[in-house]
Amino acid sequence: MTEKLINSIQSIIDLTPKEVDCINQLFKEKQIKKGDFILTDGQVCNQFGFIVKGLIRYYINHDGEDKTYYFACENNFVCNYESFIPQMPSTKVIQALEDCEMLVISFADLQIFYKSITQGERFGRLILEQVFIELLQGLSSFYTDTPEYRYEKFVKEHPNLQQRISQYYIASYVGVKPQSLSRIRKRISSQK
Amino acid sequence: MTEKLINSIQSIIDLTPKEVDCINQLFKEKQIKKGDFILTDGQVCNQFGFIVKGLIRYYINHDGEDKTYYFACENNFVCNYESFIPQMPSTKVIQALEDCEMLVISFADLQIFYKSITQGERFGRLILEQVFIELLQGLSSFYTDTPEYRYEKFVKEHPNLQQRISQYYIASYVGVKPQSLSRIRKRISSQK
DNA sequence: CGTTCAGTTGACTAAGGTCAATTCCCGTGG
DNA sequence: CCACGGGAATTGACCTTAGTCAACTGAACG
Fold first, then answer.
1. Given A156, B47, B61, B188, which is the most exposed site by the fewest CB atoms within 10 A?
2. Residues B150, B153, B157, B159: is their CA dihedral positive or negative?
3. What is the 3-state secondary structure (H, E, C) of A10-78?
4. Residues of chain B positioned with their CB less than 8 A from the CB of A140
C-alpha cells in the first residue's frame, strides 16, 4: 500500500531501510468517498496526505460559487500549506471527486518525520517550494491568460484528467460557467 | 538609516543590542531611481530588501503587457521568494515607481543572519508565511473578484497609495485597461 | 418508455477591449 | 502672464465575450 508513497519520496530524497519502516508507521491509510471533504472552509488543515488512488480538487468557496484552482490525482501530495504551516483556519476547500485511497500523516507526526528522517527537513522544504511555485504560477495564469487559453492548456497538460472530470468542474477551473465553456469548446473546434 | 528596519524586525522577533549591530552591518544601503528595476525577468533574485523610502511594484510581463500584482512602500520587505528561495531565474519583475532608498541583504549574508540572530530562523519563517499567504490571497482575488470590487478594495486598503500611483498602474493591478478603469470609476461615482 | 442529469444551444444583457478623438493638467518658454 | 506642448485621463463608437435564463438534446438507467 505504501509502495507508491515510498517511491515518490525516494524520487526526492534518499531513504535507508529503517527510514522506510518509519514512514510506513507514520502514514495512516484513509478512505474518502466521492464528494466528501478532505478539508473545509474554516477548519485547520492538520494532515499532510498522499493520493494512492483517486482524484481531488482544491477550491475557493466565494458567495456560494465554487472556484476550482487545482486538481491532484494518483502519486500527488495533498495539503493546504496556507493553513497547515501556520495551523490557521483554511480559506480553501479540498474535496474528493472520486473515491480516494490516501495515506496521511498528522501535523504532530510530521514533526517526528522531520526528526527521524535524515533528509526529512530537506524533503519538507523541497515539497513546500514546489507547491509554492506551482500554486503561484497556477494562480498567476488566471491573471494573464484568457479562459480559452486556460482550457487549451488544461487539455494539453492533463489529457488523462479531462476524461475523469465533468465539464462543470473544468469550467470552474477555467474560470467560466459551464455554458461558456461549451461555447469555448465549440469555438476552438470550429477554428481547426 | 536602519532605524525603521530594526523597528520592523523587532515587531516580529526580539533582538539584543549585539544583534542590532550585526543587522546594521549585514544590510547595505541602496538607491534606486524611479523606473529602474530591482529584479528583472530571467534574473535570479539574490537580495532580500527593506524599503526605507519609496514605492515599488511587482509585475508579470506577459506578451509585452504588464500585469501588476503587488505594490509595496515604506517599511515593507521586498523579495521574490519564488526566485530567491530556490535561487532560480525569476518569472516576475520588481520595479521602482518612485526614487527608492533601500536596505538590502544578499542571499549569502542572509544565511549569516539566520545563524547569528537567535530568533533569525523564526523571523525568516514568519516573513515567508506572511508573504506566502498574502500573495495567495492577492492572486486568488483575481479569480474570485470583479475588477470593480478589486478597485474598491484597493482604494479602501491603500488610500495613501492611490495618490501616488498613476491610473495606468492601478488599472494593471485591477486587471483591466486604463480606459476601462476610467469607466469603472465613473460607474462607481454615479451609483452614490 | 419515461425520468434524470449533464451538456448544449439560443436570445439577450452586461462589461471589458480596441481605436480614435478629446479634455485635462502641468511645466516650460516666449 | 499667457500660449504652447506633451503626457495622463476621459469619453465615444463599435466589437467580442462571458453571464443569465430558458429550452432543448442525448445518453444512462430503471
1. A156
2. positive
3. HCCCCCCHHHHHHHHHHCEEEEECCCCEEECCCCECCEEEEEEECEEEEEEEECCEEEEEEEEECCCEE
4. 60, 67, 69, 139
**pLDDT tens column, B5-41:** 999 999 999 999 999 999 999 999 999 999 999 999 9
The per-residue pLDDT for B63 is: 80
- Distance, in Å, from the CA atom of A128 to the CA atom of A28, rounded to the nearest integer, reads 21
DSSP secondary structure letter of residue B89: B
Helix, strand, coil share (%) of chain B residues, nearest 5: 50, 25, 25
For A37, the grid coordinates are 471533504
- Give chain C positions with protein CB within 7 A: 6-11, 15-20
Q: Does B16 touch chain A (CB under 8 A)?
A: no
Of all residues in chain A, the percent with pLDDT exceeding 70 is 99
**Nearest residue, CB atoms, B143 vs list A67, A81, A86:** A67
A29 exposed, middle or buried (CB, 10 Å; 0-12, 13-18, 19+)?
A: exposed
Whether the CB-CB separation of B56 and B78 falls below 8 Å is answered with yes
> Positive or negative CA dihedral for B155, B156, B157, B162?
positive
Report whether B107 contacts B79 (CB < 8 A): no
Q: What are the angstrom distances between the C-alpha of A154 and each of A18, A107, A161, A163, B20?
A: 40, 32, 9, 12, 50
Q: Give the closest residue to B19 by CA, choosing from B113, B155, B95.
A: B113
Q: Which nucleotide is nearest to A176 (CA to C1')?
A: D18
Cα–Cα distance for residue pair B56/B98, rounded to 1 Å = 7
Is the confidence at residue A181, as pLDDT, over 70?
Answer: yes
Among partner residues B65, B132, B140, which is closest to A60 by beta-carbon distance? B140
Q: How many angstroms separate the CA atoms of B32 and B36, rounded?
A: 7
Which pLDDT does position A39 carry in this prediction? 97
